[in-house]
Design brief:
The protein has 827 residues and is of the alpha/beta class. The chain is 42% helix and 19% strand. The strands form 7 sheets. Strands 16-15-14-17-23-19-24-22-21-26 form a 10-stranded mixed beta sheet, sandwiched between helices. Strands 4-5-6-7-8-9-10-11 form an 8-stranded parallel barrel, surrounded by 4 helices. The chain has a 6-stranded antiparallel beta sheet with strand order 30-31-32-33-29-34, with helices on both faces. The two termini are 45 Å apart.
Length: 827
C-alpha cells in the first residue's frame, strides 16, 4: 500500500542543474538512464520493482524514465537502490488542446496532484511535462501557443516543487518547440548514422544555451538490425554523447515488452532485454561502456595533451580574483600553467597572486587590456593560450573540453565556449544578467564561431603570432572582437565547444551595467575605422553569424516540409530588418522628439507620428523583456517591467556612446535609407490572415492526406506548399491568395478527426495600397465633422465584411464537396 513516508535512501542529494551539467551536491553527475515500461497490464504484479536491481547492478544505470505515474512503493524501491526517476506526465496531447481546453486542464490538474504528492521524495529527479507532441498538430495550434502552454505546466510544477527539475521531451520534428523556462533541454533522438548523430548533437548543444542537454530517448530495433548491431549502435551513441558534452543519455528501452495506448507493441524490439527478460548483447556492452563514466568528461581521451597557458589579465580586480584563481589551480588537466598579468601593479592583486605558488605573477604599468594580454602571451610557455577574466570561475574540466575541440578539428586557429552567469543571489542581479549587451559568442555554424568573448577565448601560439596578437588601441573592450575578425581575415577558423564554459559574473548594479554599456559603445566606435564594412547598420556591428541567445528570439523561419511531415523541421534565422535596434537607438528618440516639437508648434499630425514612434520603442522593449532569459524564481511582471527599462536604457546609452565617439565614421545617408526601407518592408509584410476552421470525422481511418489529394483533384490550380507553412496553395483572385492548413487527430481504433483551416492573405500590392489609403482616410475623417465617420466608415466596413464572407463561402464549396466524397462527416 502506498505510504507518504519516505524510505532510507541511497540518494543523499537531489539532482540539480549546474550550468551545462547535472549535479548532486558538489559532484557532477552524468545521467545513465533507461526507459522503463509501460508494460502490458498484469505482466509485472509489482510494477516491475523486481527488475530494478538488475537495472542498477547489471546495466549500471543511475536513473530511469517512466511514462506513467508511479506508486510510492516503486519510488521507495528506486530510492533504496540509488536510482533517480524522471516522470513523464501522461495526458491527451494528441488532440487540439487549444480548441478544446479540457485535456490541457486535466493535464494541469494531474501535474499539480502528482508534484504535490511526490514533493521531496529522494528518488524524484524531475518531470517531463509532455512528450513529442505531433509536429502537424503543433503547426496547426501554432508553436508559440503550444510553447506557452508547456511553459505554464512548468510554472505550475515549479511552484509546487521548487527542488524538482522540469522540461519537455522534444524531438527533431518540432526542434523549434523550446520552453524558455525549462531546466534542461530534453530530446528524443533516433539517428542510426553515427556522423548524422554527431552533427545533430552539436546543433542541439547550441540550442541548449546555458542549460544541460539530456537525451531522453535513443534506441535501436534489434528486430530490424540484429542484436549485435543494436549493441554496437548503443556503444557508439554513448561515446558520441560523451564527446559532444551531453549531460546524459536515456536508452529506449529496458524490455522488448511494452505497450502504447493500451495495446501491446509487436514487431518492434528496442529493449536491452528480451520479452522473456533474458539479456541481449546490448545490455553487456552498455554496462561495460557505462562502468567508466561518472562525470561528463570521463569519456574524453586526449592522448598527448599539449601544454596550455592560462592567462588572466586584471585591472584592480582583487574583489573577484580569489574565486577565479581557486578554480584555475583546481583544473584537471595534465600540463598547464597559470599567468596573472597585474595591469597597474595593484598591491592587493600581487598579494593574492603570490599566495598561489603555481601562479606566475607579472606586474606592469597600467596599459590596457590588449597590452596586458600580449604581455601574458610573451611570457607563456604553452602551445595554446587560454584567456579568461578575473571575474570568471572555470569548470574543473574546462581545458579538457578546449583541447578536445582542437584535436577534433586540427585546422582551428582559435576557439572557446560560452560564458554563463552564476545563479543570482538577488532579483536585481538576475534582472541585470537577463538584460542585453553582455559578452557573448556569435556562431557561423554549430561548431564554428565568428566571435568568442575574451573571457573564454583560446588561441594557438602560431595563429596568435601570425596576426600580431591583440591591438593595444583597445584598452578595455572591443579587443576580442577585433582579434577574432583579424583571425578570420587571415583565413583561420574559430571553433566553438559548448561544454567548455566558464561562469562569468555580470554587473551587480544598474549604474555599473550602464557604465559597461557605455564602454562597449565606445569600443564599437574604435572598431569602426578598422572594420568599416561591418558597421553599416544603425544597430552597431553587422554579424555574418548568429548572435547567441539562451532563448529563441522569435521570428525564425521554420522548415516544416511537405504537408508538415519533414522529420527534421529545422529553424533558420529570419532576415533581420534591424527595426528592433532602430527603435532602441538614440537617433530614433531624437527624431521622435523633433516630430513632437514640430507637431506642437506647426502641424499637429506630426504629434501622431511622434506618438507612434514612441509606441514602437515601448513595444520593442516589452517584447524583448518577455524573451529575456531570467532565472525561474525571479520571473514575473515586476522583473519584466524592470528588464524592459534596462533594455531601453541600454539601447540609448550604448548607441549614444557609439555615436559620440564614432560619428565621423557613420554614413548617415545610408543609415536613413536603410531605416526607411526597413520600416517599409515591415509594414508591407506579414499582415492578417482570414478564413475559418471546420472539422471532419471518419470511422474508417481516413485522414488529412486523403482529403488533400481529393481537393487537388477538384481544384486544378491547387498545388502543394513546399515550405510546409500550409498544405495546399489554392490559387489567387484579384485581391487575395488562398491556402489550406490541415491536421488529423488519431482517436481510439480507426477514429480520425481532421481539422481544416482556410487562409486568405491580401496580395502585396493590396497591402502597399492600403498603407497609403488608410492613413489618408483617417486624416481626412479627423479633419471633417464626426458624422462623416459614421457615414463613410460603417457602410464600407459592412460591405467589406460581406465581400470577404462571400469569398470564403466560394472557396469552401470544393473543400466540403471533396470531404464528403471520401466519406468524411462534418462535425
Amino acid at each position: 500500500m502506498d505510504s507518504p513516508s519516505f524510505p532510507i535512501s541511497a540518494i543523499d542529494e537531489p539532482l540539480a542543474v549546474r550550468g551545462r551539467w547535472f549535479a548532486a551536491g558538489d559532484e557532477r553527475v552524468w545521467i545513465k538512464a533507461v526507459t522503463f515500461g509501460p508494460f502490458p497490464a498484469g505482466h509485472f504484479a509489482d510494477e516491475g520493482i523486481s527488475q530494478l536491481e538488475r537495472l542498477k547492478n547489471d546495466l549500471g544505470a543511475n536513473a530511469l524514465r517512466l511514462y506513467e505515474i508511479p506508486s510510492f512503493d516503486f519510488l521507495h524501491a528506486c530510492a533504496e537502490l540509488g536510482l533517480r526517476v524522471f516522470v513523464t506526465l501522461p495526458w491527451s496531447q494528441h488532440v487540439d488542446f487549444q480548441k478544446d481546453r479540457g485535456p490541457f486542464a486535466a493535464a494541469d490538474q494531474l501535474l499539480l496532484e502528482t508534484v504535490q504528492r511526490f514533493r521531496g521524495h529522494p528518488a524524484i529527479a524531475g518531470y517531463l511535462v509532455g512528450n513529442e507532441i505531433d509536429a502537424t498538430l503543433v503547426r496547426w495550434m501554432r508553436p508559440r501557443r503550444v510553447r506557452a502552454d508547456l511553459e505554464h505546466l512548468i510554472e505550475v510544477g515549479r511552484a509546487n516543487d521548487p527542488d524538482a527539475l522540469f522540461a519537455y521531451a522534444n524531438y527533431p520534428s518540432t526542434e523549434y518547440l523550446l520552453p524558455r523556462n525549462q531546466d534542461f533541454l530534453a530530446f528524443n533522438l533516433y539517428l542510426e548514422d553515427r556522423k548524422a548523430y554527431r552533427d545533430y548533437l552539436a546543433r542541439l548543444q547550441c540550442w541548449a544555451g546555458d542549460k544541460p542537454l539530456l537525451i531522453t530517448e535513443f534506441g535501436c530495433d534489434s528486430n530490424s538490425h540484429g542484436e549485435e548491431a543494436q549493441a554496437e549502435m548503443h556503444q557508439w551513441q554513448i561515446d558520441e554523447a560523451q564527446r559532444a558534452g551531453v549531460a546524459g543519455t536515456t536508452l529506449f528501452a529496458w524490455s522488448d515488452l511494452w505497450q502504447r495506448g493500451g495495446q501491446t507493441i509487436e514487431g518492434w524490439n528496442f529493449g536491452l532485454t528480451r520479452r522473456d527478460s533474458s539479456p541481449k548483447p546490448a545490455l553487456t556492452w552498455v554496462a561495460e561502456t557505462w562502468s567508466d563514466i561518472e562525470s561528463p568528461a570521463d569519456g574524453l581521451d586526449l592522448g598527448e595533451a599539449p601544454k596550455v597557458s592560462v592567462i588572466v589579465c586584471t585591472y584592480r580586480g582583487s574583489a573577484t580574483l580569489v574565486a577565479c584563481l581557486d578554480s584555475l589551480v583546481a583544473i584537471d588537466y595534465p600540463d598547464f600553467e597559470v599567468i596573472v598579468v597585474n595591469d597597474g601593479k595593484d598591491l592587493r592583486v600581487a598579494e593574492i597572486a603570490e599566495t598561489y605558488p603555481p601562479v606566475r605573477h607579472i606586474a606592469i604599468d597600467h596599459s590596457g587590456l590588449s597590452f596586458a594580454r600580449n604581455i601574458g602571451a610573451e611570457a607563456a610557455r604553452g602551445a595554446i593560450f587560454a584567456y579568461t577574466d578575473d571575474d570568471c570561475v572555470v569548470e574543473r574540466d574546462w581545458l579538457k573540453w578546449l583541447v578536445s575541440m582542437y584535436q577534433e578539428n586540427p585546422s582551428l586557429g582559435a576557439g572557446g565556449g560560452p560564458n554563463i552567469p552564476p545563479p543570482a543571489e538577488t532579483a536585481q542581479v538576475a534582472r541585470i544578467a537577463a538584460a542585453p549587451g553582455s559578452a557573448t559568442h556569435v556562431l557561423l555554424s554549430d561548431r564554428l564561431a565568428e566571435h568568442i568573448p575574451g573571457c573564454n577565448l583560446s588561441v594557438k601560439r602560431e595563429a596568435f603570432e601570425a596576426i600580431g596578437g591583440f591591438d593595444p588601441i583597445y584598452r578595455a573592450a572591443g579587443d576580442d572582437v577585433d582579434f577574432c575578425w583579424r583571425l578570420l581575415e587571415a583565413d583561420y577558423e574559430i571553433g566553438f565547444q559548448a561544454s567548455a564554459f566558464v561562469w562569468h559574473h555580470r554587473r551587480l548594479t544598474v549604474a555599473a551595467y550602464l557604465r559597461q554599456q557605455r564602454g562597449y559603445g565606445k569600443a564599437e566606435a574604435l572598431l569602426m575605422p578598422n572594420h568599416l564594412d561591418r558597421f553599416r547598420s544603425f544597430g552597431g556591428a553587422e554579424w555574418h553569424g548568429r548572435v547567441y541567445s539562451s532563448r529563441p528570439l522569435g521570428g525564425e523561419l521554420i522548415y516544416h516540409g511537405l504537408r508538415g511531415y519533414a522529420p527534421f523541421q529545422l529553424i533558420y534565422p529570419a532576415g533581420e530588418s534591424g527595426l528592433g535596434e532602430l527603435f532602441l537607438n538614440i537617433s530614433w528618440l531624437v527624431v521622435g522628439l523633433g516630430f513632437a516639437v514640430l507637431g506642437g508648434l506647426l502641424w499637429w499630425p506630426l504629434l501622431v507620428v511622434a506618438g507612434l514612434m514612441a509606441l514602437a520603442t515601448l513595444v520593442e522593449g516589452w517584447r524583448r523583456a518577455g524573451r529575456a532569459p531570467i532565472e525561474g524564481r525571479y520571473e514575473g511582471f515586476t522583473s519584466k517591467l524592470v528588464i524592459g527599462g534596462l533594455i531601453h536604457a541600454q539601447g540609448i546609452v550604448r548607441s549614444a556612446s557609439r555615436i559620440r565617439h564614432g560619428w565621423r565614421w557613420i554614413t548617415w545617408g545610408r543609415h536613413a535609407r536603410k531605416a526607411i526601407f526597413a520600416i517599409g518592408r515591415e509594414l508591407s509584410s506579414g499582415w492578417w490572415k482570414i478564413g475559418g476552421d471546420s472539422a471532419w470525422w471518419s470511422d474508417q481511418g481516413v485522414g488529412r492526406d486523403a482529403l488533400l489529394d481529393a481537393i487537388k483533384e477538384r481544384e486544378k490550380s491547387a498545388r502543394d506548399d513546399d515550405s510546409g507553412k500550409t498544405d495546399l496553395e489554392l490559387g489567387r483572385d484579384a485581391f487575395w491568395s488562398w491556402a489550406l492548413l490541415t491536421v488529423t487527430e488519431y482517436h481510439e481504433g480507426e477514429g480520425r478527426l481532421t481539422r481544416v483551416r482556410l487562409l486568405g492573405r491580401p496580395h502585396l500590392w493590396t497591402r502597399v495600397a492600403l498603407l497609403f489609403v488608410i492613413p489618408l482616410v483617417l486624416i481626412v475623417l479627423m479633419m471633417l465633422a464626426h458624422y462623416w465617420i459614421a457615414a463613410v466608415i460603417v457602410p464600407l466596413s459592412v460591405l467589406g465584411h460581406f465581400l470577404i464572407k462571400a469569398a470564403i463561402r466560394l472557396r469552401r464549396r470544393n473543400i466540403d464537396a471533396a470531404a464528403k466524397a471520401i466519406g468524411l462527416k462534418p462535425m
